Amino acid sequence: MRRLPGIALALLWAATGTFAGPSRVVSMNLCTDQLAMLLAAPGQLASVSYIAQDTRASAMADAAMAYPANHGLAEEIYLLQPDLVIAGAYSTPATTDMLRRLGVPVVVFEPASSLQDVRARILQMGQVLGREEAAHALLADFDKRLATLEQAGPEAARAALYAANGFTSGSMTLAGRILRAAGLRNIADELGYAHSGHMPLELLALAAPDLLV
């Protein structure tokens, strides 16, 4: 199978306006997995990462079971004969570098750190899949749902984001911004965690949050 490099695909699309999108797409990152599952045309998505099928990490684990899983290895992805691979910025660089050397187009998505970044990633996925109309529809639904949420005020309940090993997220993270958009105050902000970090269990207990997430 002869593949066009990623830049050639982009130039073809820009020059002709007729690029319909890749027909066999492999995703090797949880975030791109989920965006691709929401936007890909039937039969367009050939594989998602194995993490997408893990109920402990994935919000769409059931849907992901419909796709073959990959483990981010260059050999297995190449044998799937993709005409596009989508990856995250922190996906295995050795894999993406090898795939590019083999002539497989790779598009890397940067992580989202705000709700505005989420909007941009939705549009980016629609663009690389040739599914702009579906992306705009998904974005409109995203904005509509977001507008119905009550933003956190001074009387809002106090919540703590608390994950394995005491990991917490403050207001400068995507998780923290989601918490605020959901109408909750984040105790991490009170305790000086603007970004992410380790919160000792004792500190969590003393903060006495109304809700533990």
Question: What do you see in this structure?
Answer:
- The chain is of the alpha/beta class and 213 residues long.
- Helix content is 42%, strand content 15%.
- It has ten helices and ten strands.
- The chain has a five-stranded parallel β-sheet with strand order 3-2-1-4-5, sandwiched between helices. The protein has a three-stranded parallel β-sheet with strand order 8-6-10.
- The protein is globular, with a radius of gyration of 20 Å.
- 32% of the residues are buried.
- Mean pLDDT is 89; it is low at 1-7 and 10-18.
Question: In terms of topology, how is this protein built?
Answer:
Blueprint: H1 6-16, E1 25-27, H2 30-39, E2 45-49, H3 61-64, E3 69-70, H4 74-79, E4 84-88, H5 93-101, E5 106-109, H6 115-129, H7 132-147, E6 158-160, E7 167-169, H8 174-181, E8 185-186, H9 187-190, E9 196-198, H10 201-207, E10 211-212
Parallel strand pairs: 1-2, 1-4, 2-3, 4-5, 6-8, 6-10
Antiparallel strand pairs: 7-9
Helix pairs in contact: 2-6, 6-7
